[in-house]
Specification:
single chain; rod-shaped; 5 helices; alpha+beta; 343 residues
């Protein structure tokens, strides 16, 4: 529904500007004209007026838009290209004119006229219209009124903010949406079912040291067997693997005096100075956990003929998990090397 922009007359403007509180400007009559004219503010009468109707009701649709209703129950036939609104004291309030017909009535018709007029300022609240017998303002989110039913295309587009949706149109939209959604979901489920069926038809089996497996239609377990201590010692198993847990823990000290321990075997080595013509004690950098089985030592100062028979020798009875002792018959102190083996 379009809004007709009304040209207020000077007298009408003065009346509405002076209205306040309960003393409102009352629009009482609608005058019809079939003669195009210039809607000037200086008009005091409606050019070409051929009929005047009572304003039945009206309301302020917004601060600057008023909604009016009037009706003609006569058998008159007429076409109007313009109109004027008159106050209850006969003052011409405002006019509207166009080259083409804006209002018309057939002979057998009852003319119910409902239209909106716009003001250049927020005057609608200062105007009264009489009793609300027939009020048909444009519908808004806060005002009841006339609205247009949306077409199915407008409902489907979902962008129109003025027309309203009927249950039938909404049902069609939802049905089409659900149909599209159902088709999409069905296609997706079919594709997933086919993928699952193809996947279930495959199988997985172990190879090499891995055993187990089978069809992927059920849960499967692939197993790799850990070698035992006995199998590692025997060194004959071809179906198990050596893990760090079986070999370890591995510890070492890589230095001139050091050690390495793995798979319960420990090797220690180092250098020490054997005192001349005396016994000397040597401590391992890491004590053996169970037993030191053997220690071998060797070394003299200059390796000359006089000392080759007097090299330091291990005193076997002194070998412990923590160290050992040597006796040297050399007349000089000797830098000596050793290697110890145990577990």
């Amino acid at each position: 529904m379009s809004v007709l922009v009304l040209q207020l007359t000077d007298a009408g403007l003065a009346a509405v500007q002076g209205a306040s509180g309960s003393d409102l400007t009352v629009i009482a009559d609608l005058g019809l004209s079939n003669t195009p004219f210039v809607a000037a503010p200086t008009l005091t009468a409606l050019p070409g007026e051929f009929k005047r109707l009572d304003i039945q009701s009206g309301t302020a649709a917004s601060p600057n838009v008023a909604h009016l209703t009037a009706y003609d129950t006569s058998s008159d036939v007429w076409n109007a290209t313009g109109f004027g609104l008159f106050l209850d004291d006969g003052t011409l309030f405002g006019t509207y004119s166009a080259e083409d017909t804006v209002l018309s009535k057939a002979g057998l018709a009852f003319a119910l006229i409902a239209f909106d007029i716009g003001f250049s300022a927020d005057f609608a609240a200062n105007i009264a219209f009489g009793n609300a017998l027939f009020v048909y303002p444009p519908a808004t989110e806060t005002t009841r009124g006339v609205a247009e039913i949306a077409t199915q295309a407008e409902v489907d587009a979902g962008t129109d903010t003025q027309r309203f949706v009927t249950p039938a149109r909404l049902k069609t939209l939802l049905a089409n949406t659900m149909s599209t959604l159902t088709t999409s979901v069905t296609a997706t489920l079919t594709a997933m079912t086919n993928s699952i069926a193809a996947f279930a038809a495959r199988s997985i089996t172990g190879g090499g040291l891995a055993t187990g497996g089978g069809s992927l239609a059920a849960d499967r377990v692939i197993t790799v067997t850990e070698a035992s201590d006995a199998e590692i010692t025997a060194g004959t198993s071809a179906s198990s693997v050596v893990t760090p847990r079986r070999l370890g823990p591995i510890s070492m000290l890589l230095a001139r005096t050091g050690y390495i321990r793995f798979f319960k075997l420990q090797i220690a080595w180092g250098r020490f100075t054997a005192s001349a013509n005396a016994s000397s004690s040597v401590a391992f950098p890491l004590a053996f956990q169970n037993d030191c089985a053997s220690v071998v030592v060797s070394g003299v100062v200059n390796g000359g003929a006089d000392s080759k028979d007097n090299t330091p020798a291990v005193i076997a009875s002194t070998i412990t998990t923590a160290g050992f002792s040597v006796f040297s018959a050399d007349d000089e102190a000797d830098v000596t090397c050793y290697i110890a083996l145990g577990y």
